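Collaborator request, handled under Task 6.
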Amino acid sequence: EQDSAAASKASRASVKKAQRAAGHQLAVGDVLRSSWGYDQTNIDYYEVTALVGNTMAEVRKVAATDVGTGNEPWMTGKSIPKAGAFIAEAKPVVVKAGRATIRGNYASVWDGTPKNWTSYA
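C-alpha cells returned to the collaborator:
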C-alpha cells in the first residue's frame, strides 16, 4: 500500500510540474467561457487582458448577446460574447493548462460556437 501511495503522490507531483512548465496556454484577447447554475444554466464570458507570469492572467467580464429560442424564448436561448464590451473591472486569476478558476467556477477558452443557456421559471 505504501508503494502505491508513494507512486500516486509522485504521479500527481509530475503532473503539476508539467502544468507549470506548460504555462497558462492563453493569449491576450482570448475569450474564456464559464457555465454555472443549479436548475438553470448561466453563461459568463471573460476576455484575457494581460498575462501575469506562467500561471496567472488578468481577465475582464464581457457582455454577451443572448437570443431566446424555442416556444418559450425567455426560458432557453443561445449566448455569444461581445469581445471588448467590458462590464467589470480587471481581476487576476490563476490559470492551469488553459483553464482559469473564476468565482469558484472553471472557465476555458470559448470555442466560437453559441452556447445554450436556460432560465428558471
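The cover message to the collaborator said: "The chain has a mean pLDDT of 85. The two ends are 51 Å apart (CA to CA). Please let us know whether this matches your experimental observations."
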